[in-house]
């Protein structure tokens, strides 16, 4: 089922309450619990539908970026061959190929060093989420404070 960018997936509405007017507090609390449970389930289903829709769009975009990366790789390969052939007009073709290879080795080494340095700064632990969960747990234990 394809949704346009203006449509929002919706989940079925919960059934209307069917509590008699003389219901006890326990019955009312039970009904509230069921309503909250239904609301949470409905929101989870909505989130799943939205994530599925956005994942499909992201997958197509990533495929296009992959194709662009491959095309860029082919361009780089042919540009390197062009440089080798151009240098081969003024020197032995083997030396021309070696020079281009060494240049690419230097570029690769620099990119590796930069990537490794940046990767060391990545923190995969969601610090803010962990802190928020700890605060929620403290609040649940002591709701009046």
TrEMBL record:
Membrane-crossing residue ranges in chain numbering: 62-88, 94-115
Keywords: Membrane, Transmembrane, Transmembrane helix
Top-rank taxon, per record: Bacteria
Name of the protein this chain belongs to: Phage holin family protein
Coiled-coil residue spans: none
Pro residues: bias regions: 11-20
Sequence segments annotated as region (Disordered): 1-24
